[in-house]
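pinging the channel bc i need a second pair of eyes. not urgent but kinda urgent?? the chain im working w is below, pasted from the shared doc
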Amino acid sequence: MKVNKLLLLALPLFLFGCANLPNINISLGEKESQATEFDENGCPVEPGELKSNNVKKIDIDGKIIEESSRVRKGKYIGYSFEGKKGQELDFSTETDLCLWLFSPNNELIDGLKLQEDGFYTLQITVPKGSTSFDLTIGLDASIPTASNPISISSSNPSPPSSSPPQNSSQGNGSTTINIPTSKPSQSQSSSLSKNDAIQLVVNWQKAKQSIFAYPYDSQLGSQLLTGKAYRDNINKPGDESSREWLQNNGAYYTYQAQEINSVESFNNSGNQAFLEVVATEQRTLCNKGRPSSDNNTSLDKRRVRYDLQNENGSWKIADYKTVNVIQRSSNPSPAC
C-alpha cells in the first residue's frame, strides 16, 4: 500500500457554514492557472481547486466506513467530516493517492491528529491517469492494516480458578474488545461491505471467549455462525462440536491476546462472500485446571479464509479454514 500524505503549505482554503454540506464553499483562487509543480511521487506540491460539488459530507465519528470514487490527475474530490480535538484520522487504501487534510481554519495539518473541534476536509487526487479507488476511513476507529491491527483482547490480568466458575461469565478473564461496537451482532443488510465482514469476524473472535468457556453460550454462536462452522463449533448432531466437547469434559479456553493484523482479500458475490485475514491468537486450553501441552495452547499467526453467507438478511460465518500458518510458538504466558 502506498499513500502519499503531502503536509506542505497550501493556498488558503475557505469554509462557509459547516452545518450542512450545501453551505460549504471551497475555493483555492487563481493558482491553478499557473504552472503546477510536482514532487517525486507525481503529486502537486500545492493542491488545486476543490469545487464544492465534488465534496461529500461523511460521518466517521467513532466508526469506519468505506468510500469509493474515481478521480483523474489535475482534478480533485474531497470528504468533509466533523471531528473533535484529540481525535485521530485513520485511513487505508490500495491505490496511489495524493491527500491533503485541512483543518476548520483552512490550514494544512501536519499529521492526522485533530487539533480543534470543527469540520475537516480531506482533499484527494491521483499522481497520474484516471483511477478508481476504495478508501477505508475512520475517526478514532480501528482499521486493520499491517501497521494498525485490531486488538481483540489483551493480557489476562486475573486468571480464573482451576476450574471454570459456574456463576460468572468472566471465567475466561477476557477483556473489552477495541472496536466501535459493544455487542457481537452481524449486519442485517443484504449487502456486505468489507468493513461489515471484518466486524463479523472480530465479533466471532470475541464471542469465542463466551462460547468455548463458561457459560458455553450456544445462542451467541447461532447469531454468528451457520452451516459447517455452526456444526463444528456449536452443535453437531450425532457427534460433539468443539463447544460440546469442552463443556462435557469441564475444559475451557482462555485468550491472552487476539488480533486481526491485516486484511488480505475480500469478495462479495450476492448472498455469499469471503474474507481472508492474517490473525494472531495467544490461547490456552485448560483441562482439569491445567494448560494443555499441545498446539491448543500456543501463540500463532496465520492466514485464515472465512466463507460468509447471508441467511435471511443476516450475514454469518458459514465456514473458515487456515490457508497457512505463518508463525507458531509455545504460549509464553498460559493462564487457567
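so Residues 172 and 307 are 27 Å apart (CA to CA). and The chain has two domains: 3-139, 150-330. — does that match what u expected or am i reading it wrong
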